[in-house]
């Protein structure tokens, strides 16, 4: 066995082999895969082999589409058959809501060039003849689906990788991992030690154990999964003969099942409600190419519905039942990328659909390792999207929930209950008492809206405007006309100190840093000049800065900061997490309110827009930013958690005669929309340049050096390819939710990033991107909402306070 390699990949399932192949394709041939048993020995060998391109996250869907398109190339290079059966897939809707979901899915796929379409049940019979028509309303047809041979495909990746110079060692178990002071690794196996620069965890069913070798607990859990293979069914053969093709794939939401042809019979797999986790604490190393005991009782409720929906199957004999484990992350998407806090340790695990996603995971990870960037927007599968709060038992609750909802639709206003409440602030019960409907924001409970007295504090889930509409309108009105208070604890907050702090921060940010006592909005770019962050920075003192960013991106940003921090120890960065939490007061009477809580002068002259102060308020030491996301006069007040309750009570008492009202996250997002403020992960993502995103004011090209500047200059010189636009939509009772296609002159040219109803300006609003060449100020557009194209027009200025006087009043 070789004793050195540039990269060691742990795990010879479909994912590890794909990463190996893609690294060789990128030109890294000194790469080695270690497999404790034989290739495919984890979950790969017993997979049903189905593949499809649809995914709730359009960026993940693109990588699935890549995976599906890769198999022909693999067969050609390796000479190994993947056993491909390409046959169209249909998703069947048995309720009006599921039909709306299918229409939305087709619309969202349009911009990605997906060829999906809505068809009638009569048409669906041409692909799947066993449907009992009376149960269904319609279907989605996806021509790019099929199934393959899981082992053949894994060996095809492996062979292609070997041809590219890679080495594979089977019967080689990695027993421990040791990092050397220079950041390289010693990989200790049962056959000796391999020294390498990078380690990739593609351990599949054992990904947690491999993670534990470097002291991390990855949020992954395996679930048992069952599918049946029927005896031959005469109707299958009859269909093949008469139609001249195989029976297509089916997903039946109602029966939580998927079906496809296998030989002259059928495969029927189930994602049942009472799903069962497997090996909840540790995966036994002794587990080999084994199956688990089937438990037909557990899937009986789903089978009953499936047999009603497809009566032909009820009489078919069962040839075999497969029950095998495979892994999931809490949201069902993979965990890919460099692991924060561990140099050169990469994750390629939690891949629940290896034959739809394995290629995309291999491509993104190899780009990342070789070029320093995944080359795509892979936030939906980035391992950095979870923090320490995603513990083993939290993951257990979420994975079970996700499994049971695999074929359920999620409404845009639907909050999922498992594992909650997890993190709460000291105001949690106070908000609940006052009718708060809570949402989950990166593991933390956040008030979304407040139900009025007498109304039930619960969302009625829907694609349409719902029971939160009027309460949110009232919250927005209170902010715009008097004063509102909202919790803003769910931000990431960092303190940066040290003699090198200013120079380091300035080298990351496109905007010049603020002077002492001032705030500045600062986008951050990667080397390719794309937006990877958007921060509010305060200069608290010489050599001391406070910085606020997206809470969801805290691990993502810490990973970047760790990579860029000077090695001489001249800069310290402290993420505050929940040690600093906040309340924001906003609205024309917010200054009056603040003044009632302090003997300091907070007049407009003394405490200006974009000022930062550290001062006492309501007897509590606070850090105060004179800025809010509402676009109104307002303040963010940050305190240690033990003081938050006192601060809130003081604000409510002093604000009573000013008409103060609680407002939640949904009102806040609506108020920011009326100002056309963008938001991280929607308008600002690593696929957009700063000029495309309209951040020109915050990007200095002639003042200082920073990462991504050369690319930003290039973007400015060449002109941005895309343009962020703001639209007023002729919506009916349903506003945009995000990812809807934008049509111009009968063609899909762009997509919506976010939107909703602007309650104070009484308009349905949307933000999105279109190619710059399409942009004309007087253009007419259409946005496809739930399958219906609604007219929209460009809105050049924010409909609320276009001259931005309110923030400065
Ligand atoms: C019943 C069933 C049906 C399925 N149907 C489908 C389907 O239709 N379509 C689809 O896309 N997916 C399906 N899947 C899921 C699919 O099997 C997985 O997505 C895929 O196998 C994940 O591959 P992997 O490489 O990540 O993990 P694994 O296949 O688990 O591979 C991990 C490998 O790492 C090795 N390993 C772990 N630790 C070490 C160590 N310390 N040293 C050396 N080697 C180590 C293991 O031996 C193993 O071979 C199904 C799964 C099951 C169980």
Beta-strand share of residues: 25-35%
Radius of gyration: 27 Å
Q: State the separation between the terminal residues, measured CA to CA.
A: 72 Å
What is the total tally of β strands? 39
Query: Helical element count?
Result: 19
Query: Which range best describes the helical content: under 10%, 10-25%, 25-40%, 40-55%, 55-70% or over 70%?
Result: 25-40%
Counting copies of identical and different chains, the oligomeric state is: single chain
Helices and strands: which structural class? Answer: alpha+beta
Q: Averaging pLDDT over every residue, what do you get?
A: 96
Q: Name the ligand types.
A: flavin-adenine dinucleotide
Largest sheet composition: 9 strands, mixed
Q: Report low-confidence residues grouped into runs of 5 or more.
A: none
Overall morphology:
globular
Quick synopsis:
With 809 residues, the protein is of the alpha+beta class. The protein contains 19 helices and 39 strands.
Structural account:
25% of the residues lie in helices and 28% in strands. Strands 5, 6, 7, 13, 14, 15, 16, 17 and 18 form a 9-stranded mixed sheet that branches. The mean pLDDT is 96. Bound molecules: flavin-adenine dinucleotide.
Task: Provide keyphrases for this structure.
809 residues, alpha+beta, 9-stranded mixed sheet, 8-stranded mixed sheet, 19 helices, 28% strand, globular, binds flavin-adenine dinucleotide
